[in-house]
From TrEMBL:
This is Bifunctional protein FolD. It comes from the Bacteria. Catalyzes the oxidation of 5,10-methylenetetrahydrofolate to 5,10-methenyltetrahydrofolate and then the hydrolysis of 5,10-methenyltetrahydrofolate to 10-formyltetrahydrofolate. The lineage of its organism: Bacteria, Pseudomonadati, Pseudomonadota, Alphaproteobacteria, Geminicoccales. NCBIfam families: PRK10792.1 (NF008058), PRK14186.1 (NF010783), PRK14188.1 (NF010785).
Amino acid sequence: MMDTRWIDGKAFAARMRAEIAAEAADLRARHGLEPGLAVVLVGDDPASRIYVRNKVQQTTEAGMRSLEHRLPAETTEAELVALVEALNRDRAVHGILVQLPLPRHIDSARILATIAPEKDVDGFHVVNAGRLAVGLDGLVPCTPLGCLLLLKAFAPPLAGARAVVVGRSNIVGKPMAQLLLRESCTVTIAHSRTRDLPEECRRADILVAAVGQPELVRGDWLKPGAIVIDVGINRVTDAEGKARIVGDVAFKEALGVAGAITPVPGGVGPMTIACLLRNTLTAARRQAGIAG
Ligand SMILES: Nc1nc(=O)c2c([nH]1)NC[C@@H]1CN(c3ccc(C(=O)N[C@@H](CCC(=O)O)C(=O)O)cc3)C=[N+]21
Ligand SMILES: [Mg+2]
């Protein structure tokens, strides 16, 4: 039996936030610059509220300014576009995050396209997706960036490794594949229509699961020694009727097979927020013309 390492994303993210706080203090002392992150929440989905609360708290703790905009669920698309345009013009705002999902009557693609690419700290604008695809500096989506940082720290050299990304979303799967390709991995993107998904996963030295299906990936889908990054955050009710959070990987089955694995919670989630703060700092430096 393999002794599986736990990849402690919570501790790694805390160290990252401490580094970011030190850099933010330096920016303020030497340049009088305080990075500002605007978070826009439309409606009152309780899960979204918790994420927003964590983001706001960690932004402030890192010595950056957090500007919150909570709008009612009935907000029109035109009103939201107007708010984003005002934030684009506001020089105290360096990063803009519009929490997804948006209410159904609002076209999220239109909202994302309205965010100025240099303030798009989620990295969701087509300009940032395109920059990543062609290898230009831009803003990289936070969750895949967090996964990459964990892989660089916990996986053996990435160049030449076989990486399988399960999930093809614009938010995680596709940018994750681009980042792994940039590290010279041999990248496969698998998804719900992939023929023989278990066999595809068994080829992976590095497996990133980002499908949003509780415990889809079983222990016997893993190559022994594989590095497993679990992006899933799924709320489930267990046999005793208790609510808990599980990932896209059957964690207990993976223990003893994987070489290393991220737990849920405490793995990728905290890295997403740390990378959001990193992107906000980067965006502020670039907008102020300060090298970093
Ligand atoms: N424009 C936009 N950008 C986002 O980045 C975005 C979004 N919309 N909508 C919602 C999702 C979800 N998301 C999470 C971030 C951190 C944790 C996180 O820190 N999770 C902890 C705690 C989990 C818990 O206990 O609830 C963990 O996994 O350990 C979770 C989820 C960002 N999202
Ligand atoms: Mg997690």
